[in-house]
Amino acid sequence: MSRRTIAVVAGGLRQPSSTRLLADRLAEATATSLRERGIDVDVQVVELREHAHDLTNMLLTGLASADLKRAIDTVVQADGVIAVSPIFSGSYSGLFKTFFDVLEPGSLAAMPVLLGATAGTARHSLALEHALRPLFTYLHAVVVPTSVFGATEDFGATSAEQVPDDVPPLQVRVERAAGELADLVAARSPHRVSDPFANPTSFADLIAGL
Q1: What is the spatial distance between Cα 192 and Cα 183, in angstroms, rounded to a whole number?
Q2: Residue 25 and residue 74: Cα distance in Å, rounded?
Q3: Can you give the pLDDT at residue 197?
């Protein structure tokens, strides 16, 4: 059985967090979908609230703490990413944006990404399409077609009758999006991290370049 790594970026600021709850549901459904395809899964969660101070410091100094460096490596070295943000003032949170601002350019290029968002009301759901999806398109990630928005009322609903506008229940949307991410991840070879010391420049070449 082959193995893939899924990195989950949870941008919730409080504990307990509905953003983390949605992220966990997406991760569990993605892992189940990959196992159904004969692929074992490692799920690694990055809670951005734990790195808030380090992210600010990195913006100011350009240097990442050891903990933040591990969090960044977890995301850029994964085979797929699940990114979930709370929606504030009609867009992703500042902490969520800051994390993706400090990544090296191109580090998420061609990375399969599933997007999720939470808010108190479904009126914020379009933020997925006018804020989060353009951000990850700019980063050249491959975003799955289905994004998942969870309003407060969604978490207790078990049928379409309990959700406005005949929207499918949250779990149905979660499983559909997870299946799309699993398809993309399964179609790719496992991510291989290049070793910067594997092929060093020879001393002769260094001398020749002087």
Answers
A1: 19
A2: 19
A3: 61
